[in-house]
Each structure stands twice: as C-alpha cells, then as structure tokens.
Automatic annotation (TrEMBL):
Presence of the UniProt keyword Disulfide bond in the record: yes
Domain of life from the UniProt record: Eukaryota
GO biological process: mitochondrial respiratory chain complex IV assembly
GO cellular component: mitochondrion
Organism encoding this protein: Linnemannia elongata AG-77
Keyword Hydrolase: no
UniProt-listed InterPro entries: Cyt_c_oxidase_assmbl_Pet191
Protein name: Cytochrome c oxidase assembly factor 5
Family: Belongs to the PET191 family.
PANTHER family referenced in this protein's UniProt entry, alphabetically: CYTOCHROME C OXIDASE ASSEMBLY FACTOR 5
C-alpha cells in the first residue's frame, strides 16, 4: 500500500480495536466497519474511515494520480 494512506489505515485500525464494537459487542473489525454497525463505532473512527476513503479515492483519481495526495 502506498505510504500516503498507510498512516491513516493504521490509525483507523487502532481506533476500531479500541472501540466498544469490538471490546463489548465482540464483533470483528470488518463487522464493525460494515454500514449496518456504523452506529456502534465512535464518531472519531467514522471521521478516520472517511479520511481513509478519501485518500484511497485520491489515488485512483487521474487528476491527482501524478501529483500525489494532498496529505
């Protein structure tokens, strides 16, 4: 994975691992990130998830592909 999204991915993983969705409800990280369980993760994790999505989308956008992500 390109280094521009790697830090955000690690931050998202740490946030999900510390969330009540995994600790109290016993769901996997994949299940917590699923849209049906979005209410179970904190707002901070949702914001990080959105940032990760934007980063990945920026890698595929032809206008940004050669310039790189803004972050």
């Amino acid at each position: 994975m390109p280094s521009s999204c790697k830090e955000i991915r690690i931050e998202l993983a740490e946030c999900i691992l510390k969330s009540d969705c995994m600790l109290k409800d016993g769901l996997s990280a994949k299940e917590c990130l699923h849209s049906d369980n979005e209410y179970r993760i904190p707002v901070e994790c949702t914001a990080i998830k959105r940032s990760f999505f934007e980063c990945k989308r920026g890698m595929l956008d032809m206008r940004n592909r050669f310039r790189g992500n803004k972050s």
